[in-house]
Write a structure and sequence with these properties.
- In the N-terminal section; belongs to the PRA-CH family. In the C-terminal section; belongs to the PRA-PH family.
- It catalyses: 1-(5-phospho-beta-D-ribosyl)-5'-AMP + H2O = 1-(5-phospho-beta-D-ribosyl)-5-[(5-phospho-beta-D-ribosylamino)methylideneamino]imidazole-4-carboxamide; 1-(5-phospho-beta-D-ribosyl)-ATP + H2O = 1-(5-phospho-beta-D-ribosyl)-5'-AMP + diphosphate + H(+).
- By secondary structure, this protein is an alpha+beta fold.
- It is built from three helices and eight strands; from the N terminus they run αββαββββββα.
- It has a domain of 95 residues: Phosphoribosyl-AMP cyclohydrolase (Ubiquitin-like (UB roll)), CATH 3.10.20.
- Strands 2-1-6-5 form a four-stranded mixed sheet, covered by helices on one side. The chain has a two-stranded antiparallel sheet with strand order 3-4. A two-stranded antiparallel sheet has the order 7-8.
- The longest helix has 10 residues.
Length: 140
């Protein structure tokens, strides 16, 4: 995984934070995409603190709605995302994180969370797990 430089200028970080239109819960959706292949990896949420940490460190941090806490991608599984570029949509209410993903992005052990599709009238997996989720999360 390449070294990623965080956004070093606090003024620039503040400008981006102020440009984001967080929803009524203080969240913004974030699509994570592999920077060099274009593969869509996952959708998650950030609050202001998660976005600020991501910009300051270069390590992608999300907000876990189920845990009501910051979620540093890979802190449990080792499947870290490093920020390469961050893009804000035209309305300011969604983010695209171009990342360098170490390993799999999905908790099911698949490379992408978008690994299910309608096939022969049924919703089925279209990609097999690359890693046993038990090995990533120890039974979580």
């Amino acid at each position: 995984m390449s070294d990623v430089t965080p956004v070093p200028d606090p003024t620039a970080r503040a400008r981006l934070l102020d440009a984001v239109r967080f929803d009524s819960r203080g969240l913004v959706p974030v699509v994570a995409q592999q920077h060099d292949t274009g593969e869509v990896l996952m959708l998650a949420w950030m609050n202001r603190a998660a976005l600020a940490e991501t910009l300051a460190t270069g390590r992608v941090t999300y907000y876990s709605r189920s845990r009501d806490a910051l979620w540093r991608k890979g802190e449990t599984s080792g499947q870290v995302q490093r920020l390469v570029d961050l893009r804000l949509d035209c309305d300011g209410d969604a983010l695209l994180a171009l990342v360098d993903q170490a390993g799999v992005a999905c908790h099911t052990g698949r490379r992408s969370c978008f690994s299910w599709a309608l096939r022969e009238g049924e919703v089925r997996p279209i990609a097999e797990p690359l890693v046993d989720p038990q090995a990533l999360y120890g039974g979580r």
